[in-house]
Design goal:
Layout: H1 12-25, E1 37-38, H2 40-47, H3 51-63, E2 67-70, E3 74-77, H4 82-106, H5 109-127, H6 131-148, H7 152-159, H8 162-172, H9 178-194, H10 198-219, H11 223-231
Antiparallel strand pairs: 1-3, 2-3
Length: 232
């Protein structure tokens, strides 16, 4: 994990938390080669701070389920088990499908135009297999739908799932041609939103996310082994 020194003019413990969370989001948590251990000394040096605010931020991240602090062993980014990931995807499908239903009714024409423009501008990155660029754009697409819902509560609930959902989608998009197929799904969702068809938009978003659920259940047979290995 690489971090940049923080601006201490902000509330220190909150800023440290934000920086660490941002760095965790950038990690490929579900890649077998990813080192999940966080070295406190290295983190403190990179941030240019003492270990006290760092440990406060890590404690908060542990409470929110992003890291695990293991006595005498260190701090580790938390990788969910297969069953937890499947449950996560179901929860996300429920939240985003409701958001899409609301967005179809309440989104402004400007928001819908921005969503289409975003999807079109990044569709080529999926086709040419620039999967890092597309994975970023893919998550932004789903975040935009949540924002368009106009529901702060839905957005807050989704924010709690974001780190792991981002990592799950990031890995899945590299497998079995999912990136190209997701572009097709996104365009159908946009058309339903533009038609102001709340039921169709909700269904398409839910089906899109549940395709991810089926993909993970079918192909991620080694995930529980990875989680166990990370714990040792």
């Amino acid at each position: 994990m690489k971090l940049r020194p923080i601006d201490t003019s902000f509330t220190l413990k909150d800023h440290v938390y934000d920086m660490l969370r941002e760095a965790i989001v950038g990690m490929n948590i579900y890649d077998q080669a990813t080192d999940l251990r966080l070295d406190e000394r290295s983190l403190a040096e990179q941030l240019g701070i003492s270990r006290t605010p760092l440990r406060e931020a890590l404690a908060r991240l542990e409470q929110e389920g992003f890291v695990e602090i293991r006595p005498r062993r260190g701090v580790f980014v938390r990788r969910m088990t297969l069953e937890e990931v499947l449950d996560l995807i179901v929860a996300w499908a429920a939240l985003e499908s409701m958001a899409a239903s609301l967005a179809a009714i309440s989104a402004s024409e400007g928001q819908l135009e921005a969503l289409r423009k975003h999807a079109m501008s990044h569709s080529e990155s999926a086709a040419r297999a620039d999967l890092h660029e597309y994975s970023e754009a893919n998550l932004k697409f789903h975040q935009m739908i949540l924002e368009m819902s106009g529901s702060p509560m839905l957005q807050r609930l989704a924010e709690g799932l974001f780190v792991h959902m981002y990592a799950v989608r990031r890995r899945a998009l590299t497998e079995d041609g999912r990136a190209v197929r997701s572009v097709v799904d996104h365009m159908a969702i946009i058309e339903a939103l533009e038609a102001r068809d709340a039921d169709l938009a909700s269904r398409l978003v839910r089906e899109h996310t549940m395709k991810l659920h089926a993909h993970v259940r079918r192909l991620w047979t080694r995930l529980d082994g990875l989680s166990a290995a990370a714990a040792n």
